[in-house]
Amino acid sequence: MKRIAVMTSGGDAPGMNAAVRAVVRKGIFHGLEVYGIKRGYAGLISGEFERMELSSVADIIHKGGTVLRTARCPEFKNPKVQQEAAELLKAKGIDGIIVIGGDGSFMGAKALSNLGIPTIGIPGTIDNDIPCTDYCIGFDTAVNTAIDAINKIRDTATSHERTFVVEVMGRDAGDIALAAGLAGGAESILIPEVETNLDVVIHRLQQGQKRGKLHSIIVVAEGVASGFEIGKIIEERTGFDTRVIVLGHIQRGGSPTSFDRILASRLAAKAVDLLLANEGGKMVGIINNKIVATDIDEALKQKHTIDKEMYELAKILSI
Ligand code: F6P
């Protein structure tokens, strides 16, 4: 292994830069040549490679987004395109590649591995929905961003005695909603992994009001329904003055938390070690604070699950 490449792919996530930095610096430490591929699989197809030096990744550890840029690239699902990409990598003498991204990016990584390019996936998505790791890069920062917003919403909600519905991201996963809802003290948390019963939500709101609660916050994951739909139903059925806020892409930006920076650095270092050992077709993850490698196939086969105990706890504490 002499020359490796790194890219970020799919939705950006805070901490991706810390991961790129760690791949470049750890790679160079071991005497490897490291290339950055711009704009994920789109840049791979169009040959946007750039030699990375130690200084290329200076002053980025604290920055959100990704200096390599990123893209969603549906064309890469096409086996012909995958074959061409593998040939291009071989022609450029790239011996191994590290892909930082979510499940779509991992499918591409698996395809490249099957075509003889040792490829390692690093889970980077605010959705936290990749199996075989407790955390994905970006999730912690996104949750902190959501909590910061909820804290502010709580101030105005209390002053006006209002109900707020806060819609958070997560695609089909409820991790951000659950963590932000628990840490933000939400009255109800609606996630796709648990069937939503709006009668229960409304009953809890009414009970809260009887007890003298000045405001209520309901966190809804985008995978359940639009916050506006939920807010409309709640207002119609309770008569409570209700407002809706969609946090949206704000959750994808911002300086990564120390947790995400450290996680990114550790996962990236392991990814480089795996390539040095000539291993491909793997993803790296953190399980019980240990950095581990799992076959990408295995991760793609498993279904993402939510921490049900945490969900039940949030219900008890929000009474
Ligand atoms: O996968 C990350 C994510 O932010 C999801 O939470 C969200 O559903 C999606 O990406 C939004 O994608 P886009 O930025 O392409 O609109």
UniProtKB/TrEMBL annotation:
Its EC number is 2.7.1.11. Allosterically activated by ADP and other diphosphonucleosides, and allosterically inhibited by phosphoenolpyruvate. ATP binds at G11, R72, C73, G102, D103, G104, S105. The keyword ATP-binding applies. The active site is at D127 (proton acceptor). PROSITE patterns: PHOSPHOFRUCTOKINASE (PS00433). SUPFAM superfamilies: Phosphofructokinase (SSF53784). Its cofactor is Mg(2+). One of its GO terms (cellular component) is 6-phosphofructokinase complex. GO terms for molecular function: 6-phosphofructokinase activity; AMP binding; ATP binding; fructose-6-phosphate binding; identical protein binding; metal ion binding; monosaccharide binding. It is an enzyme of class 2 (transferase). The keyword Kinase applies. It is found in: Cytoplasm. Mg(2+) binds at D103. ADP binds at R21, A22, V23, V24, R25, R154, G185, A186, E187, R211, K213, L214, H215. Keywords: Allosteric enzyme, ATP-binding, Cytoplasm, Glycolysis, Kinase, Magnesium, Metal-binding, Nucleotide-binding, Transferase. It catalyses: beta-D-fructose 6-phosphate + ATP = beta-D-fructose 1,6-bisphosphate + ADP + H(+). GO terms for biological process: canonical glycolysis; fructose 1,6-bisphosphate metabolic process; fructose 6-phosphate metabolic process. It comes from the Bacteria. Pfam families: PFK. Homotetramer. Catalyzes the phosphorylation of D-fructose 6-phosphate to fructose 1,6-bisphosphate by ATP, the first committing step of glycolysis. Belongs to the phosphofructokinase type A (PFKA) family. ATP-dependent PFK group I subfamily. Prokaryotic clade 'B1' sub-subfamily. This is ATP-dependent 6-phosphofructokinase. It comes from Anaerobranca californiensis DSM 14826.
